[in-house]
Amino acid sequence: MKFKRQEPLGPYICDFVCHERLLIVEADGSQHASSARDGVRYRYFEMKGYRTLRFWNEDIQENIDGAAEQIIQTAAGR
User: Fold this and answer.
1) Strands 23-28 and 51-56
2) Percentage of the chain lying above the pLDDT 90 cut
3) Cα separation of 41 and 10, whole Å?
4) What does the alpha-carbon distance between residue 62 and residue 60 come to, in Å, rounded to a whole number?
């Protein structure tokens, strides 16, 4: 799988996107915990056929292998 970093998709910038698998991976800090704009953003991605995985920065730092496994399983369609 090839992911691009900071890739534009419509009016938004994706943290990481794999166009081949229609998969977006977002790494977010606590400022996104209750952001209504994120919901609009994710609905836009869904309308374009993309699935979004969202990880908190702390979760990635504490369990990078678990995050990677979830990305791999989602990309494989499991």
Assistant:
1) parallel
2) 69
3) 10
4) 6
Q: Compute φ and ψ for 44, nearest 5 degrees.
A: -60, -45
29: how many CB neighbours lie within 10 A of its CB?
A: 9
Count up the domains in the chain and report the number. Answer: 1
The CATH number that applies at residue 22 is: 3.40.960.10
Per DSSP bridges, beta strands 12-18 and 23-28 are antiparallel
* Distance (Å) of CA 73 to CA 2, 22, 30, 78: 15, 13, 25, 5
pTM check: above 0.90:
no
In sequence order, the β-bridge partners of residue 14 are 7
Residue (of 75, 78, 70, 76) closest to 27 by Cα position: 70
